[in-house]
Amino acid sequence: MIFLLLIVMVDAEVTIMSEKGQVVIPQALRKELDIKPKTKLLVYKKDDLLILKKLEIPDLVKEWDEVFAMIAKKNLNISEEEIQQEIDALRAEKRQRR
């Protein structure tokens, strides 16, 4: 997949690393990818290639609200504690499979 990425990259831009190790991402790319200050990026290394990928962090409060909205819509009588118990059980099961 990394090598496929190289094939579709047509317009390369040059940037310079500062003495502190900072690299400026060109403004056009920041706008296109909606990268703002404090945006988290994953950094991958393959041989002499570095790849930056914008890290999408889900809004957990929003997702949790959506879960409870679904529960309410289906008239399920499930408490927050029961949901947490299920989550804990699934996590324990996943750890055992490792």
Mind summarizing the main beta sheet? 2 strands, antiparallel
CATH architecture of the largest domain, please? Answer: Ribbon
Specify the number of helices.
Answer: 4
- CATH topology of the largest domain, by name, is Pemi-like Protein 1, Chain: D
Query: Could you name the ranges where pLDDT drops below 50 across 5 or more consecutive residues?
Result: none
> Which sequence of strands runs across the widest sheet?
1-2
Q: What is the helix fraction of residues, given as a range?
A: 40-55%
Distance between the termini: 26 Å
Shape: elongated
Secondary structure tally: strands? 2
Features:
98 residues; alpha+beta; Pemi-like Protein 1, Chain: D; two-stranded antiparallel sheet; 4 helices; 47% helix; elongated
